Amino acid sequence: MKPAGRGLVRDRELSVAPELALTALTIGAVVSFGRLFEDGRFFGPVFAAAVCSHVVAWLGRRLGLGLPAAALLSLVAGAIVLVWVIEPSTTTYGIPRGASWHAVGRDLRDAWRRFGDVVAPTPATVGFVAAAVVGAWAAAFLADAAAFRLPATFEAVVPSLTLFVFSSALGPDKHRVLYTIVYLAGVLVFVLVSTATRRAETTSWFAGRRGGGASTIAQGGVRLATAGVVVAALVGPALPGAHSASLVQWRHHDGNSGPRNRVTVSPLVDIQSRLLDQGTTEFFTVKTTGAVPRYWRLTALDDFDGTIWKSSNSYKGANGRLPRGEPSKAPETTLRQDYSIQELSSIWLPAAVQPERLTGQSGARYDEESGSLISSTANGNGLTYTVVSRIPRFSEADLARVRSAVPRRIADRYLRLPRGFPLKVIREAEQVTAAATTPYRKALALQAYFRSSRFTYNASATLGTDETAIEQFLFKTRSGFCQQFAGTYAAMARAVGLPARIAVGFVPGLLQKDGFHVRGKDAHAWPEVYLSGYGWVPFEPTPADGRGLPGGDTYAGTPVYQARTSDDPAATATSTPPTTVAPAAGSSSNRNIEGLNVGGAGSTGAGEHRPWWRHPLVILIVLAGLATAGLTGVPVVRALRRRQRRAAAVTPQARVLVAWEEAEEILAVAAGLPRRPAETPLEYAARVAAAAPLDAGLLAGLARDTSAAGFSSTGVDDGIADRSEATVAQMRRTLLDRATRVQRVKWSVDPRNLR
Questions:
Q1: Is the CB of residue 329 less than 8 Å from the CB of residue 533?
Q2: How far is 425 from 428, CA to CA, in rounded Å?
Q3: Neighbours of 647 (CB within 10 A)
């Protein structure tokens, strides 16, 4: 007697056509990942993983492995393939080592950490490609199991459909019609081929011959499907309203007058690569009034979740004069900047703080809280524009008079530290600032702490800004680049009651005749501390090359900034001091940030953070809930369909045929013995009686009654119909009584022969 679990695979082995069609469907979903990445470097590893997963699943079925054993085989093979395509250099002659698993785990953790901050399309980083490989491998295995083990055509489409919907939901609209055509064509071809093949194996063609049936159905279906896809692609985009705004703006609000919320990758993520990999690449040039140097800000990050600093802000249309941010009692100067962007590849537009007017850029948007400008395009390459900023001139005498009173709206947002923030770091911050009596003196004490001889600058440092990295940076290595210095400074400032955030942008760059030339090596991050009455005051804790903060010599104690004309530190140029302008009388902020919800990581409304439904954990929970709902819905659907069939069977003949249909369903699911192609009822009953613990006489009687109901000229009466229904009920009880509780649950959610 052969095991029931293996009999299904051997009895229902399908042709190679559905295998190839299902593989092509998964590849179609992989192609749609092109919407998530900036280039096609992701495709090779993910394509290889999808194909290998289908091959391994096919091998498991050929070996006659049950689903648990096949899943284990796929898991082991998937882990090995993941190492081969993602971290091949960590293997020894292709054999993964401990370092291999550590490297892959690090890559996946990095992808998980960045997922909430990245907006597609994103660079094909190792972590994101690794995550795509895992997703493609799992989808391919699940699709194979559904198609060839259950078999269930619709369920086989769901895994690849999940990948396609994921890429469509998170990716931009570019080439959406092309990606949809590719995937939809794959779905239609698979459904047609699978259905045609299964029908050919389960339908008795004339004289028991099946040849030609599948190909005839498939060929006709493919022609119709091709015509349908072509018509949809050509006619769909031309229909009225096809390019109108969606009824529900689920990504962000749009419009020139209302807010638009942008959740983007934190610019901290790119700093080290810009310092090292793009060091000589010229990003932009900026010509200023009197060749005055400044730090060119991109944005400010205010939310520290224990892993990375990030921000999600509300941007409004920037046309001409910009709304004033935090008011300041410091005297101000006016500085004009003319920008020409070359290779910045960023949605943020650099500008000196505090932007007051923007010209030359229609469609740009501005967030007054962070002082950030963003372009209307995916990046600012090739743009030219002019910004006029009001530069505050801080003095030691003024800032020294600031007391510790902080507005509640500032404290609630800019003093937040993650739960469980290391007590050791808090104590270190308190010790460093113990002798300081005012907020300003505390900020200076922290700056002096980092600029002392105990810390060194190292652009190649591998530390991040999370809590563990902060402890390692402070108490072990004491070496890093601006990301570590700025992030640790801001976290320690918050620990001692100083509202702080991180500004990200660039140092002035090289001064030439046509302005400052800013390159990758000029990427920088620095902290800003809120001092009541004076707004956000920048400090410079990074001790790189005696770096001086432009304008910081009047209050921060940093060296007077000397504009450089070449990479030689000795080559400097004297800049003309700006002209002082009296502060605007009665100037005040016109922003409204009351009632901010700072507990999340994203944004759905003005000033709010990332919506809960964009959180990775929520996405996983929803997907798991959908899968659970699908499984639990199977017994409900089966019961409803059984009731419908019985209600429609009003004659004795129909009742007998319905009973036989239910018998086939029970035997296929609970005994693993589906009816073979072209097998007569009597032949099927004899085979089942030899392999299953059922009464051979009852099975044979049910088969004879079925043949009589289907072909006898005299038909059957109600007594025979009652007997057939009683036989099926007894068959069900026998199989359930012999089954374990786990088997009963599996049978109840098994969608095989759900019709």
A1: yes
A2: 5
A3: 9
